[in-house]
């Protein structure tokens, strides 16, 4: 497979149209293209003016679409684990319906979306997968989940199936809590390995490009800065920023004030994101619906550029040792130092930026070091470890 392109941004900025336009453009160039919606409020069917189902649906030559059903996804990928958790909660006194509801743990939906992604990569049926993701907050949950779940599996479920066979008969007489059987443990192990592979796919800048979509207004601009910072925190490569719905100068007197604000935002955007490839797209005179209109929109957006290109390669985190000094450098261009917490927990560097947390598995030479100071230098957080 050549490429995964994931679009995210504030709700209402036009992510679905941009993603659909890109997919249509690539399919028109002969690339076998699948576009997936992970947004619970699916609108791909509306964009293409055709019904798209939970399984890949052929939209036209070289083009397929999929609107993932959360319930179907969980049943497809989590059946054994969910059955075990339901039984576990019932054994502790919960009624069956409550136990089943709680057994759908936070993150199940995000993981299920990602497991579909792995299925498609393994199938080899597509050259390109375009992801129309949910608005920023949900997308960040989606992208942070593989690493968080991997940590959870290592810490909470480190037991293997062989060890379980020895322990299960010993603990059974002393507890009413059901011990996971081989099928459940196998399901958990498979999930763990899948999430590690998916994380590798998404963090590989040669395979995956994450592209932010925004509008030239203050609220969208501010959210885009936060999203960019958090994506870098989790080690993902953002290679382009698309400014959608730009009013042309000839829009008329009524839009004069909008254009003035817009021009200010466009200038700030150029200054704020010097490392990103910037694209802009004028607001359309009418709704862009159907594959023909979407392909034209894709051409207007990318012009002479290849959507499959890697426009920017970033290394969000680096580790440096020089003259006995240990430094972890993180690109967090719009974070506020006052809203960052740092600490070392048993060889893991924990970094909290506002509501988001990432646990870094430190290299061996850094594992016994603790953060003692941090400073911003040109949008980079330098953490000194001692």
What does this entry look like structurally?
With 386 residues, this protein is of the alpha/beta class. The chain folds into two domains: 1-313, 3-Layer(aba) Sandwich (Rossmann fold), CATH 3.40.50; 317-385, Immunoglobulin-like. 42% of the residues lie in helices and 24% in strands. It has twelve helices and 15 strands. The strands form three sheets. Strands 3-4-2-5-1-6-7-8 form an eight-stranded mixed β-sheet, with helices on both faces. The protein has a four-stranded antiparallel β-sheet with strand order 9-10-15-14. Strand 7 (238-246), helix 11 and strand 8 form a beta-alpha-beta unit. Helix 3 (70-77) crosses helix 6 (108-123), helix 6 packs across helix 9 (182-203) and helix 7 (136-156) runs parallel beside helix 10. The protein is globular, with a radius of gyration of 23 Å. Residues 159-175 have low confidence and may be disordered.
């Amino acid at each position: 497979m050549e490429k995964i392109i994931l679009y995210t941004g504030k709700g209402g900025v036009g992510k679905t149209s941009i993603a659909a336009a890109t997919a249509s453009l690539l399919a028109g160039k002969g690339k076998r293209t699948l576009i997936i919606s992970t947004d619970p409020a699916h609108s791909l069917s509306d964009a293409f003016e055709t019904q798209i189902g939970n399984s890949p649906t052929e939209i036209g030559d070289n083009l397929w679409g999929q609107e993932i059903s959360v319930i179907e996804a969980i049943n497809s990928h989590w059946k054994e684990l969910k059955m075990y958790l339901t039984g576990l909660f019932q054994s502790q006194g919960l009624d069956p319906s409550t136990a089943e509801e709680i057994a759908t743990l936070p993150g199940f939906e995000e993981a299920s979306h990602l497991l579909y992604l792995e299925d498609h990569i393994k199938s080899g049926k597509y050259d390109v997968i375009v992801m129309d993701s949910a608005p920023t907050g949900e997308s960040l949950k989606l992208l942070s989940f593989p690493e968080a779940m991997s940590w959870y599996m290592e810490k909470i479920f480190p037991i293997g199936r062989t060890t379980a066979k020895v322990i299960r008969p010993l603990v059974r007489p002393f507890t009413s809590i059901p011990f996971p059987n081989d099928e459940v443990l196998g399901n958990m192990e498979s999930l763990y390995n899948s999430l590690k592979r998916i994380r590798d796919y998404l963090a590989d800048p040669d395979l995956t490009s994450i592209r932010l979509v925004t509008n030239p207004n203050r609220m969208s601009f501010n959210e885009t800065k936060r999203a960019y910072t958090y994506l870098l925190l989790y080690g993902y490569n953002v290679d382009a920023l698309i400014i959608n719905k730009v009013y042309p100068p000839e829009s008329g007197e009524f839009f004069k004030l909008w254009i003035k604000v817009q021009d200010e935002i466009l200038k700030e955007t150029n200054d704020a994101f010097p490392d990103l490839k910037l694209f802009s797209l004028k607001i359309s005179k009418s709704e862009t619906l159907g594959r023909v209109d979407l392909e034209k929109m894709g051409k207007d957006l990318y012009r002479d550029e290849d959507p499959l290109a890697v426009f920017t390669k970033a290394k969000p985190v680096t580790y440096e040792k020089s003259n006995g000094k240990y430094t972890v450098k993180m690109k967090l261009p719009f974070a506020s130092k006052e809203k960052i917490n740092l600490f070392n927990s048993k060889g893991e560097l924990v970094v909290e930026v506002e509501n988001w947390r990432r646990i870094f598995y430190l290299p061996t030479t850094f594992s016994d070091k603790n953060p003692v100071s941090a400073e911003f230098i040109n949008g980079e957080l330098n953490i000194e470890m001692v």
